[in-house]
Amino acid sequence: MKILDYLIKENIPFHSLKYYKQAFTHSSYANEAQNKLEDYERLEFMGDAVLQLFVSEYLFKSYPDYPEGELTTLRSKLVREESLAKFARELRLEELIYLGVGEEKSGGRDRDSVLCDIFESFVGALYLDCGKKEVIKILHKTIFKHVDDVFHSEEIIDYKTKLQELIQADDRRSVTYKLIAETGPANAPEFTINVTLDGMVLGTGKGTSKKKAEQQSAKDALLKMAKTKEKD
């Protein structure tokens, strides 16, 4: 499906197609193109910030009795990689992505990390081109209608939030995440990340994206801390 056809079908009152073309241009496609193209990474940055703000605003108004901790957990579940990839599929955004040959062959069109990025870049493009009103319409079609089922879902566990809450139960210190290795080809990388506290490594995790590796490192830290507590 062409981007123009999609925007018309979704009744999006677009002004400039260039935002959307950039939003769906993967770096692999931009690198292979003869003419210099911009990939979606800058729009992804914008979309991430927009999602944080508008999802926070929606949760704050919709759940007035929820304390800060529960609102933070709920928001983190809604904007996690797996969740945003699911929402991208609901909008059929995968059909619009411009991918390089190698990325296409390796299954990039259905990879969660790519679809998560695409959802964020699409939101970023929509915000810059049309403003808040149209972004909110898209969020009602995706994120907002899934708030309750995501909140009660056991399959989406935010280990990073759990770890931070556990650390802050004793004091106000914060853990940090550090990339220690990146292996594999550009179209299928694997990241290794350490989570540390005051220079001490608490856990290590690997994943096909930095976000996944951070979650796995937090999970590893929680498991190790639980074992240490059992011994005590």
TrEMBL record:
Entry-linked SMART domains: DSRM (SM00358), RIBOc (SM00535)
Active-site residues from the entry: 48, 120
EC number(s) stated in the UniProt entry for this protein: 3.1.26.3
The protein's required cofactors: Mg(2+)
Binding site for Mg(2+): 44, 117, 120
Region (Disordered): 207-232
Family to which the UniProt record says this protein belongs: Belongs to the ribonuclease III family.
Protein name: Ribonuclease 3
Lineage, opening ranks: Bacteria, Bacillati, Bacillota, Erysipelotrichia, Erysipelotrichales
Gene label: rnc
